[in-house]
């Protein structure tokens, strides 16, 4: 059905067949070629019978987007709703656009939104532009090679690979294709199904073709909700895991702190015991006064020497050591001179001295 401004509205419940006028120039006949997704990736316009006329990779679905009559998200039967037709940067592209059409993971981005503008020719062909690149580039095809976004738009020169023919093939009849990617999530399409004015072609084997589209997408509804629910449960599980991990860390740190504290107390007790032994050393005794009021000069570590009394033996003075070690030699030899007789003729007599090496000297008369 055509809108009032001349743009074409495609039915979202219809599989379409796309080709370009370089290889197919008569829309009233069965197309000999089609836009296809290669097994190794990439897009090519190949002959229809290369993969068999019942294969879904030949067929495309158009889902209206942004409430713009000629703007769509485009899916393929091979990748279902997981991927959509997009535009990708390619440094090997010869055109200055450096970009080519590609299949990318479904998202609500301008790179995955396409507009179909009628050329106004007699065969009803369309130019295909991308919402991201704008009207400065049209989808074109290198001869026998890849698609690319062409910046050469001179309409005075025939550009058959920029003129696309679109023909309805069969109905979709699968609820998964009624969703539209909006804001990163899929929502049910609210646009009513419309009847396309695109001519319908008949496949040589229509039964096998109509059953094939429903067979591959049928597994998708169960797969995608499962991934959404698993993502929610994964987030909750991650939160629980973080909480449990923090609790375990705090418990371990607390246990280590208690162990460290107990060891510190034990070390402190050991230090106190070393500083206060069971049998402390007795304080040093004060030195006793030696004979005649003098103190012995001995040190604390040496055994004190007893006072040395002086005894007279038969008129001589002898020094006797008391308190010394039994094996030690006497500190000094007593001086034992021959006894002297005081003569009356000598008024003065030299006193005899007894010298001790460890006590003060004493003179006697």
TrEMBL record:
Compositionally biased tracts (Low complexity): 187-228, 328-365
PROSITE patterns in the record: RICIN_B_LECTIN
Record carries keyword Lyase: no
Keyword Membrane: yes
Membrane spanning stretches: 236-260
Entry keywords, A to Z: Membrane, Transmembrane, Transmembrane helix
GO cellular component, one term: membrane
Chain positions covered by the region annotation Disordered: 183-228, 275-365
Localization of this protein: Membrane
Membrane topology category: Single-pass membrane protein
PANTHER family reported in the protein's UniProt record: PAIRED IMMUNOGLOBULIN-LIKE TYPE 2 RECEPTOR
Protein name: Ricin B lectin domain-containing protein
Protein species of origin: Eremomyces bilateralis CBS 781.70
Lineage: Eukaryota, Fungi, Dikarya, Ascomycota, Pezizomycotina
